[in-house]
Design goal:
The protein has 15 helices and seven strands. It is α/β, with parallel strands linked by helices. It folds into three domains: 157 residues, Rossmann fold; 60 residues, Helicase, Ruva Protein, domain 3; 94 residues, Up-down Bundle (Zinc Finger, Delta Prime, domain 3). Strands 2-3-4-1-5 form a five-stranded parallel beta sheet. Strands 6-7 form a two-stranded parallel ribbon. α5 links the parallel β3 and β4. α8 runs parallel beside α10, α11 crosses α13 and α11 crosses α15. It starts with 9 loop residues before the first helix and ends with a helix.
């Protein structure tokens, strides 16, 4: 029978335990370490894309401040699940109003995805933050700080997380692969970095899924296990359409939709990334991107993905003929 650890999600297994282990966010870590060293932690707002270390930093602060019993003085809530004013008035307020245990100077409430809180809930949270600042610190995490009301932003120290760079992701992926006994090929790393786009959580999850199929992780294993298409496949489809091979472009589209299981919106996003790499004029790229935006809107509004993307490929072909002829 397999051990419990074998089923553990690697993102949690390899989550940094201290601020020194956090990858990529050098300036943010420097500021947070200064707060922890002095024991003077303000209310904080962590803003930035997914998988860049926001939750990790919040947990690392609690570990370093409170030691082995950090969980007794730390509560994590996902605001996208419990986003109403009642949550603020019950769960959050009840935890904030009680004194911290042991020698801890205060407790920490971590509100993940706090940009999902309703306006009324945010207004109630602002008052709770003021009233219980002597016993509790709030750490709010969000993707878009603009969705947090100004009174809360003005009461927090704002930290803006950036997507991780290629070298930073490569370093972490190689470490995980080494500890899991995997043969991680260079093209496999490139594929994961391409798909993750700075999201370390997504990259590690992709690696774990690929590892269930084979101990040898190359680009093909990554794309197939992640139900994603390689940039070369997408670029080939676009090129065939522009050069007049409509049937070839349709076959490439069929492969993306059927064999790799991409949705219409996935295909459009992949095309958008590859269009700027093509050796065509900027004015041509402008026309194609403009039409891609229109197609993406139609898909969101409920248009048939095959019809809409085939119509987009047809436009690429007709526009390419006009420019070549």
């Amino acid at each position: 029978m397999a051990s419990r650890d074998e089923f553990e999600i690697w993102v949690e297994r390899y989550r940094p335990k201290t601020l020194n282990e956090v990858v990529g966010q050098v300036e943010i870590v420097r500021r947070l370490k200064g707060y922890v060293k002095k024991g003077l932690v303000p209310h904080m707002l962590f803003a930035g894309p997914a998988g860049t270390g926001k939750t990790t930093c919040a947990i690392a602060i609690a570990r370093e401040l409170f030691g082995d019993n950090w969980q007794a003085s730390f509560q994590e809530l996902n605001a996208s699940d419990e986003r109403g004013i009642q949550t603020v008035r019950t769960k959050i307020k009840d935890f904030a109003r009680t004194a911290p245990l042991g020698d801890a100077p205060f407790k920490i409430i971590f509100l993940d995805e706090s940009d999902s809180l309703t306006s009324d809930a945010q207004a109630a949270l602002r008052r709770t933050m003021e009233r219980y600042s002597s016993t509790c610190r709030f750490v709010l995490s969000c993707n878009y700080s603009s969705k947090i009301i100004e009174p809360i932003q003005s009461r927090t120290s704002v930290f803006r997380f950036r997507p991780l760079l290629r070298d930073e992701m490569t370093q972490s992926l190689k470490r995980v692969a080494r500890e899991e006994g995997l043969d991680l090929k260079d093209d496999g790393i490139e594929a994961m970095v391409y798909l993750a786009r700075g999201d370390m959580r997504k990259a590690i999850n992709t690696l774990q899924v690929a590892a269930t199929v084979s101990k040898i992780i190359d680009a093909d294993a990554v794309y197939k296990s992640g139900s994603s298409a390689s940039p070369e496949m997408v670029s080939d489809m676009i090129t065939k359409a522009i050069e007049g091979d409509f049937e070839g472009a349709r076959k490439a589209l069929d492969r993306l939709l059927l064999e790799y299981g991409l949705s219409g919106e996935d295909v459009i996003r992949s095309m958008h990334r590859e269009i700027f790499k093509l050796n065509i004029g900027d004015d041509f790229k402008v026309n194609l991107v403009d039409r891609m935006g229109e197609t993406e809107f139609r898909l969101v509004e409920g248009g048939d993905e095959r019809i809409q993307i085939e119509a987009l490929l047809a436009y690429f072909l007709l526009t390419g003929k006009e420019r070549s002829g």
